[in-house]
Amino acid sequence: MFEFERPRSGERALLVHINFNSQSDQDDLAEFIELVRSADVVDIDVIVGSRQQPSAKTFIGKGKLEEIAGQINEQKIEVVLFNHALSPSQERNLEAHLQCRVLDRTGLILDIFAQRAQSFEGKLQVELAQLKHLSTRLVRGWTHLERQKGGIGLRGPGETQLETDRRLLNKRIKYLNSRLDKVARQREQSRQARKKADIPTISLVGYTNAGKSTLFNCLTESNAYAANKLFATLDPTIRKLDLDDQSSVILADTVGFIRHLPHDLVAAFRATLIETREADLILHVVDCADDDRREKMFAVNQVLEEINASETPQLVIYNKIDLPDFQPRIDVDEEGCQWRVWLSAQKNQGIDGLLNVLKERFFSETTNYELSLAANEGKIRAILYEQGAIEEEVYEDNGDIALKLRLSPTHLKRLTRKYGVAEDRFTKQLGILAGVA
Q1: Cα–Cα distances in Å, from 432 out to 35, 238, 255, 426?
Q2: CA 304 to CA 312: how far, in whole Å?
Q3: What pLDDT is attached to residue 142?
Q4: For residue 205, what is the enclosing H or E element?
Q5: Quick one: which of 181, 186, 56 has its CA closest to 124?
């Protein structure tokens, strides 16, 4: 498996952040520092500069280049991390001048994903993204092998070592794509099975470290890994969520998003992110204590648009209300539609309000029906009682039971498909049952 030469734990790193406008982007720098710490690089120095535009050759100017070189020698820096996307030639030129490993923001995010991937699918997705990124940087470190192979048994037309590596790289990428296609088909089968069961699907999305996994654990009583760090969880998790005795939904926890998320990562995780696109509802989790939340919400919506999920209905979840000491509440728009829920997953505040909103959204539309059951259909009657659907019942002279029911469309479909009750047996009623005073 191809992998990047990643920073080691405790390694001395120098961070470079350049502002290309009149206003300093301090929030973006703070996020980059958190990214570096998430990669277990704890000893950090930072160099900040300003330029009108990047240098085509080295991204930064000669003065800043010499300043970084001096810091490397003085502080014994082992890796230089840029809070920007560098071209392959810029990385090569910087490493040649600084005599030190150089990694850009994309390479750092890929490295963190490689650390966190636990499932077989997650590892395949990360490796594919790594290889696509590496394919544009293959020349780095191999320039001495660009000549053709020589020696006994190797003379002739041959191919350069670089060409050999590219061929092997493309072969591995093709293999990974085929494996991920198989995973995508398996996920599609699971989605189709859930659709047949008529269980609504809800997808949790949000900026990394917004509290998605904590909310997921709180709702489903699961133990998915959650920590106060960027990209604490990577592999998607799906659980059933019971809203009450008769109402259930499927809840999917997904990978967190971030500004300037590498395109190769989005492409590699498309099979996973399709769970979001196919969901009936998106819970967009936001850290309400974050002053930069609007920009981060915009970044999340950009990724949703890239995976064609921008048209999926959204419910905004303002999480972490305990930090600014807000009270749980539910905001409604001008049309009276609930669109934002304020809660704290960590403190279990406002969770009941969210469950009620979900229940109303999926199961509030109910219709009165009349159903006649034979004496030997007691199992169906018991199921209807478990679901709380029976309003009234009357025993007829022939032994049949006339039921007055109140059912949502989801419950009706579940009865007809799962329990084999023909839909034409349910008669819509506006009044009361015959024979009942």
Answers
A1: 63, 42, 50, 15
A2: 9
A3: 45
A4: strand 201-206
A5: 181
**Sites in the chain below the pLDDT cut of 70:** 1-10, 21-27, 42-43, 138-161, 194-198, 224-236, 245-246, 268, 270-272, 365, 410, 414, 417-418, 430-437
Tokens standing for 180? 């991920």
Closest by CA to 301, choosing from 314, 312, 310, is 310
CA torsion 67-70-71-74 (nearest 10°) is: -160
Report the DSSP beta bridge partners of residue 55: 59
What is the DSSP code (8-state) at residue 160?
B
* Residues ≥6 apart with Cβ < 8 Å to 384: 390, 403, 405, 415
This prediction has a pTM of 0.72
- In this structure, what are the phi and psi dihedrals at residue 105, rounded to the nearest 5 degrees? -60, -40
The secondary structure of 408-436 as a DSSP string is -HHHHHHHHHHS---GGG-EE-SSPPTT-
The residue among 149, 180, 182 whose CA lies nearest residue 164 is 149
For residue 68, what are the contacts with CB-CB under 8 A and spacing of at least 6?
14, 16, 47, 60, 80, 98
Written as one string, the DSSP assignment of 106-162 is HHHHHHHHHHH--SHHHHHHHHHHHHHHHHTTTTTT-GGG-SBP-STTT-SS--BHH
pLDDT the model gives residue 430: 52
- The letter for the amino acid at 360 is E
